[in-house]
């Protein structure tokens, strides 16, 4: 507890006579569940049992001790050899947890948003927030890395389901450009850690222009959550593996449910149509479980292609962000060079990369992109490039395109990004293990990127 003179005493079952300093609670949570968050400019003098804080002007200040709500099981590996694998397999439960929290029995979406004033608000039921959504004329999504890929999927949902023009920007670019913002723009910030420096600066920039900002963050107590007008907790549970997996799925799930909220507020969907979307979404968890059970198919493909120096990922439509996310996962943990392209752009240059030693992963579900993707695969085969197909159960005659096939169950096209990424996360994992890489702590990377 804090004394009035600004000093703090740490106590509790785990933190007796000791204190830790970290940029992210997950780094110290196995040692203490009691955290003091510093504000920008604060200085803290820490001793074993006491902490004094002064602000940027050198005045003693009190900062509250926050109790972290965590479950010890989140930090144990259980029977898994790596956190990343554990987190990949947790994904159906993550979807279920979010659905239970955000969807009522009659399939109405009630996403809970924490409001900056510390009052609990509810998107969809709080009239003030409903009004705000109704008045949203444009959305700008800002994020980095995997969170940016989730934003690329969300752009399509916001435009196609809710009819709201949406832009996506990489936070490190957004913060240094001169964006045209209007009073009806909503800034949506996406971050697992809630501490990514570029994303935080992008958020500050938007708010300085009097634009409302809503954050989708996994760490509810993070700086981004605290500095946004509203924050939707992702409910992924603590993510330990540096390469993000379950937080990505949690981002997609929450962003999809938000697009349904938005579509309702903008009168683009009837109550019945909104409920139909939610019912479709209920298939996702079980379909993910099926996709995970097919891990052996992924293992044999990883064994066959894990020695490659370069791998290309192609997709169209909803699968372009999946291709990008799959390439990022592979780069992050296996150190194989990977590049992702919208398949239609391939003939404008990257097709020159194709040779007998460069495999291409073609994401070719049985959806509106199938025949165009099939032509891309033919073009690669004609140049003797090996192809791995990630397709859906209903796709016919894909064996004629390639012997290397991974299938996932069919779901509605806009929801497929939640499924096609599953075998590709596993592919990156299996290849990294084969190559003896440190899966959970890849070289040169940090879980919270708190510097520019
Ligand atoms: C963004 C991010 C992650 C990535 C890695 C480095 O983090 O690029 O997507 O997996 O951990 O940071 P965040 O803003 O989503 O926390």
Could you walk me through the main structural features you see in this protein, from its secondary elements to its overall organization?
The protein is 36% helix and 18% strand. The chain contains 14 helices and 17 strands. The chain has a seven-stranded mixed beta sheet, sandwiched between helices. Strands 14-13-15-16-17 form a five-stranded parallel beta sheet, sandwiched between helices. Strands 1-4-3 form a three-stranded antiparallel beta sheet, with no helix packed on it. α13 (370-382) links the parallel β15 (360-363) and β16 (387-392). The radius of gyration is 23 Å and the shape is globular. Residues 1-14 and 118-125 have low confidence and may be disordered. It binds 1-O-phosphono-beta-D-fructopyranose. The site of 1-O-phosphono-beta-D-fructopyranose has 15 residues, from α4.
